[in-house]
TrEMBL record:
This is Transporter substrate-binding domain-containing protein. Transmembrane segments: none annotated. Belongs to the bacterial solute-binding protein 3 family. Gene3D superfamilies: Periplasmic binding protein-like II. It comes from Motilimonas cestriensis. The keyword Nucleotide-binding does not apply. Keywords: Signal. It comes from the Bacteria.
Length: 244
């Protein structure tokens, strides 16, 4: 009996010793396709998943994906509940110095989508008086004055796709989204004849993953792997996959 217990304990210890560290990656409710494609068990594919699956393979760790609301994001990074937020930037966090920052991995633009038959939006003043589809909990510093003062009416949704559907139906005047996400959703939904990008560019930023200081993969190693993925074209091919 005692021998059996000892063997059981040894097996558990051996399996624990062999277990790989687990890297926990966040995806937000607003991380629609092509950043994240959801299945019955959560995040299954998309830019974030395929990027981090490859990083985990090169780092020889396991990876899991956890949805965390934007309002709990910083706290979850700081306490190590999540280790990586891929689609981030220091200017989007209230306390950016409390997490580590990986090297920038690609450029993203925030753009305005309008109906094809609507007047073009060329400058920020053209937004005044319009109802703009926005993402719940997301800040838009470049047009914050207009949104805060009610010059532009903010209409939140959890998903960009919901905003685009409302725009097509005439319930919104415009939608703000990223160029990567907007282009993919318009194409895949068959809205190319109805919706277009306006001329006004809200912002342009470097997507810079936020890394928890409690991450099992230290910042230096994350950066080494990301640089190798940039150098060998993995990231460029991944982005191209979802822009064709």
């Amino acid at each position: 009996m005692k021998l059996g217990l000892v063997l059981f304990i040894c097996i558990i210890w051996f399996e624990t010793a062999l277990a790989k560290p687990q890297l926990v990656v966040n995806y937000a409710p607003s991380d629609n396709a092509p950043y994240v494609f959801l299945g019955p068990r959560g995040a299954e594919s998309g830019i974030i998943v395929e990027l981090m699956d490859e990083l985990a393979r090169r780092a020889d760790v396991d990876v899991s994906y956890q949805q965390v609301a934007r309002k709990r994001l910083e706290y979850s990074l700081q306490n190590g509940k999540i280790h990586v937020v891929v689609t981030s930037n220091p200017k989007w966090l209230a306390e950016p110095d409390k997490v580590d920052w990986a090297l920038p991995i690609f450029d993203e633009k925030n753009v305005i989508v309008i109906r094809r038959d609507s007047p073009n939006i060329i400058k920020v003043e053209d937004l005044i008086g319009l109802t703009l589809g926005t993402v719940l909990g997301y800040a838009y510093p470049e047009i914050d004055n207009e949104l805060t003062n009610g010059l532009v009416v903010r209409s939140d949704s959890l998903e960009v796709m919901h905003n685009l559907t409302r725009l097509k139906a005439g319930r919104l005047d415009a939608v703000v989204t990223s160029d990567i996400q907007g282009a993919w959703l318009i194409k895949e939904s068959g809205y190319q004849n109805d919706l277009v990008f306006a001329s006004f560019l809200v912002s342009e930023q470097k997507i810079t993953p936020a890394i928890s200081k409690l991450s099992p993969v230290p910042l230096e190693q994350v950066n080494q792997i990301l640089q190798s993925m940039l150098d060998d074209g993995f990231i460029a091919k991944l982005l191209q996959k979802y822009s064709d």
